[in-house]
Amino acid sequence: MIFVSVGTFVKGFDDLVCAADEAAASLQLEGFAQIGHSDSVPKHLHWKRFLDGREMQQRLQSCSVVVCHGGVGIIGDAMRAGRPILAMPRQGMTSATNPANDQRQFVEMMSYRYGIHQCLDVTQMTRDLRDLLAFAPTQIDYRLETDIPQILAGFLRGGCSEL
Description:
Strand order of the largest sheet: 3-2-1-4-5-6
Mean pLDDT: 89
Distance between the termini: 33 Å
Largest sheet: 6 strands, parallel
Helix content: 25-40%
């Protein structure tokens, strides 16, 4: 069972919703998606726009993999739940038509430091998810007691100098 989360960004994340839904259908996976403000609605996955904290934690605890945007909150929650993560960061420069932050740097840093898996190309979601499910353990100890607060603080200060 997969859990998909796109966060709360006001324009949603249609590419992630569609790619995850298509991957789940292609791989014959059951799952659930939190789609936020996305215009796209999954055809295969069960979904809700938003989840309260309790339901979010339940979904994270019961899934076998988390497919998400590159947000600090969802990645941290998935790490605390010990789940394998496939993150598809929002990409592109911030502008009037794209007011979301580019999440690539953060996802790259978390990939390097903690083995978070990345999907940087929407057309590769099915392959990336299949590979993750084939090789990732069902429970991961991300060793959060070590340096994650320092990594996040460094990132929020403006960069990936922690790499």
